[in-house]
Write a structure and sequence with these properties.
The chain is mainly β. The protein is 5% helix and 34% strand. Strands 1, 4, 5, 6, 9 and 10 form a six-stranded mixed sheet that branches. The protein has a two-stranded antiparallel sheet with strand order 2-8. It has a two-stranded antiparallel ribbon with strand order 3-7.
Length: 122
């Protein structure tokens, strides 16, 4: 770095970028689960727009998987923000209603669309 480049002051430093992913197609109709959900630890980073199911034995949420048999095979809601569950359970906000861009959702399938009765997909 040339000292005079910034009049002797440090440069701008590392520049970070963050991708903004909007899964809602419209903000006209949306509702979240009051009080949010508790995501089970051990699922790594769960991305915004991931369809969630609830494990019956623990009452905690994990990414929906139609082939599961622990309760998470039933889609319940859609995660509102990225959450890191690698080391601990994590509280999170999740939608139960809204108009969503289907191509930006993770885990959406025909069964999930049927279960998410208050959600519309475009």
């Amino acid at each position: 770095m040339i000292g005079s480049q910034y009049n002797g002051a440090p440069g701008p430093g590392q520049i970070n970028t963050q991708e903004f992913v909007e899964v809602l197609a419209s903000t006209d109709l949306q509702a979240r689960i009051p009080g949010g959900v508790l995501l089970a630890k051990g699922n790594g980073v769960i991305k915004k727009g991931t369809v969630l199911g609830r494990v019956t034995a623990t009452n905690k949420f994990v990414p929906y998987l139609s082939s599961a048999s622990d309760g998470s095979q039933d889609a319940v809601c859609i995660l509102d923000n990225d959450q890191d569950t690698t080391l601990t359970d994590m509280g999170a906000s999740a939608w139960i209603a809204g108009i969503f861009t289907e191509s930006k959702l993770t885990g959406i399938d025909t069964a999930a669309k049927t279960a998410l009765k208050l959600c519309y997909f475009v």
